[in-house]
Amino acid sequence: LTLDRDRVGYVSLFSPTLCRFWQLVDNGIWYGGISLMMWASFERHILVFHSNFVRTTGQLVLVHYIPLIFFSLYAPLLYFYLIFIYPCDEDFDSTSLLCGGMCFYATIPNWFLVYDSFVDYTIPILLIVVFSISLLLRFIRQKQRLQQAVTWRQCRKMTIQLTLVSATYLMFDLPYVIIFLVQSCGYPNFASNIIQPYVASLTYVPAIVLPYTTLLALPGLKQKLHSLFFWKRHQRQIVPLTTYT
């Protein structure tokens, strides 16, 4: 929808219901994905260096499943309430991004807007940076201490996958977070001429790049593509006919 609106200058399939779902996906689902990535970045430390915390079923439920469910549902449910249930005057605009924005911004208390900006977006992005870099440093330091080759390969694949996904967030979301923090510290005009046309647009890139980043990190993908490629070549070979006399 964002690309379509930028291409033609308006929302092609404009309707109030579509606008609400667009706002839900762009905010609730997206923030939920960032929160989930933040937890995954932290959980990698537990799985790699403190695996004794998830040995029993009770520990697995407490350490893995409960946080996973919470971070997956918190932001989507919050924004579902704010967009579909919270009472406010809606005024959708077919020529504006997100149909003009969410109406609750005009009536909700300012403290919630500050909370939302920091807790749902800024802090998770910064924690992804901290957890990812610290995991990489710990992984390098502990590499020589891992005695089993299988364990080393499993940890390496896990770290590569997390690093690729985390780097996608950091590359395209961190500039926006830095500008937001500087503006919040008393410099409201800092980078104001580039944040909307350029930096804010970069935050949409991870949604496009992440599926390919995840595919590249899948174990055995290279071998599967190699087999598929050579299988096709084998299928295209022309076998000469044998003539019997």
Topology of this protein?
Blueprint (H helix, E strand, L loop, with lengths): L1 H7 L7 H34 L7 H29 L24 H33 L6 H36 L7 H11 L2 H13 L3 H16 L9
Would you write up a description of this structure?
- The chain has 245 residues and is an all-alpha fold.
- The chain has a single domain, classed as Rhodopsin 7-helix transmembrane proteins (Rhopdopsin 7-helix transmembrane proteins, Up-down Bundle), CATH 1.20.1070.10.
- It has 8 helices and no strands.
- The protein has helices at 2-8, 16-49, 57-85, 110-142, 149-184, 192-202, 205-217, 221-236.
- The chain is globular, with a radius of gyration of 24 Å.
- Residues 1-214 form the G-protein coupled receptors family 1 profile domain.
- This is G-protein coupled receptors family 1 profile domain-containing protein.
- GO terms for molecular function: G protein-coupled receptor activity.
- The chain crosses the membrane at residues 21-42, 62-84, 96-115, 121-140, 160-182, 194-218.
- Keywords: Membrane, Transmembrane, Transmembrane helix.
Task: Give the C-alpha Rg.
Answer: 24 Å
The first-to-last residue Cα distance is 68 Å
The total count of strands amounts to: 0
Total helix count?
8
Q: From the helix content, strand content and strand pairing, which structural class follows?
A: mainly alpha
The coarse silhouette is: globular
Order of helices and strands: HHHHHHHH
Q: What proportion of the residues is helical, as a percent range?
A: over 70%
Strand content: under 5%
Arithmetic mean of pLDDT: 79
Number of domains: 1
CATH superfamily: Rhodopsin 7-helix transmembrane proteins
Please report the first level of CATH classification, the CATH class: Mainly Alpha
What is the third-level CATH name, the topology? Rhopdopsin 7-helix transmembrane proteins
Query: What is the CATH architecture annotation?
Result: Up-down Bundle
Biggest sheet, open or closed, and with what strands and sense? Answer: none
- Low-confidence runs (pLDDT<50, min 5 residues)? none
